Amino acid sequence: MTARIAGRTGDFEMVIGLEVHAQVVSNAKLFSGAGTAFGAEPNCQVSPVDAAMPGMLPVINEFCVEQAVRTGLGLKAEINSFSVFDRKNYFYPDLPAGYQISQYSQPIVGRGSILLDMDDGATREVGITRLHLEQDAGKSVHDRDPQVTHVDLNRNGIALMEIVSEPDIRSAQEAGAYLRKLRSILRYLGTCDGNMEQGSMRCDANVSVRRDGEPYGIRCEIKNLNSVRNVMRAIDYEAGRQVEAIEDGDEVAQETRLFDAAKGTTRTMRGKEEAHDYRYFPDPDLVPLVLDPDWIAAIEAALPELPDDKKNRFVEAYGLSSYDAGVLVSERACAEYFETAAQGRDPKVVANWLTVELFGALNKAALDIDQSPVSARALGGLVDLIADATISGRIAKEVFAEMFETGREASEIVAEKGLKQVTDTREIEAVVDTVLAEHGNKVAEFRAGKEKLFGFLVGQVMKATKGKANPKSVNEILRMRLSD
Ligand code: ADP
Ligand code: MG
Question: How remote is the CA of residue 309 from the centroid of ligand 2, in Å?
Answer without folding.
Answer: 31
